[in-house]
Specification:
binds zinc ion; 13 strands; 4-stranded mixed beta sheet; alpha+beta
Length: 211
């Protein structure tokens, strides 16, 4: 089932932690008819709801009865607003590559309009092995479009060279032979890496990161 209501999430329901046919009732609206997210310490939500929330439904998110704190490229979206990565971890400013690596990401993040921050906070997280992090481009958050495998890189690359394209759009470089070992048809039998793919809604380019 494709999720269609969200600017920054264009993926299947099963690529999010929301579950269809959950037996739970939403702690906010009491209903069971919309996909549910069982809340645990992996998610921080913001809500005016007075009671503790164990489960929250997609409808209530769409109706803005609660919102998510999200991690994004260069920082965090919190109840108090944008928290830059180097504000949360001040030692990062002392790093030798701060000005060429993290600072440009933080600059891009603070350039994003507040209304778009609100839209992303009203978007479900995507399922990630460790951390769902929204990438940015063209002064906006990018849209999560799913997890890509070798065939996706072949189709999306301009010249069919999957590895070259992967290296070009990867936000977290992991070494020259990473694609070959983790994603190519000759990948290692122990390959477990996941590529989270994003599309810029302005210029349509793709970027992504691996875990
Ligand atoms: Zn609900
Ligand atoms: Zn763009």
């Amino acid at each position: 089932m494709k999720i269609t209501n969200f600017k920054y999430l264009k993926a299947q329901l099963d690529q999010t932690p929301f579950e269809h046919n959950s037996k739970r009732n939403c702690s906010i609206c009491g209903k069971q008819d919309s996909p549910q997210l069982e809340l645990d310490e992996s998610y921080t939500i913001i809500t005016q709801h007075p009671e503790p929330i164990e489960s929250a439904c997609l409808n209530c998110l769409i109706e803005k009865k609660y919102a998510f704190e999200h991690q994004v490229e260069g920082g965090f979206l919190t109840e108090e607003g944008i928290l830059l990565e180097s504000e949360k971890f001040p030692y990062l400013k002392d790093s030798s590559d701060y000005s060429e690596n993290l600072l440009p990401k933080e600059t891009r993040l603070v350039a994003i309009e507040t209304s778009n921050v609100q839209v992303l906070m009203s978007t479900p997280p995507f399922s990630a092995y460790q951390e769902a992090v929204w990438l940015t481009h063209c002064n906006d958050f990018m849209s999560f479009v799913g997890n890509w495998e070798h065939d996706d890189f072949v189709v999306k690359s301009p010249d069919g060279n999957a590895q070259h394209y992967f290296d070009e759009i990867l936000a977290n470089y992991n070494g020259d032979d990473f694609y070959e070992k983790q994603f190519s048809p000759t990948k290692s039998e122990y390959a477990q890496s996941i590529f989270y793919a994003f599309e810029c809604s302005t210029c349509k380019i793709h970027r992504g990161y691996v875990e």
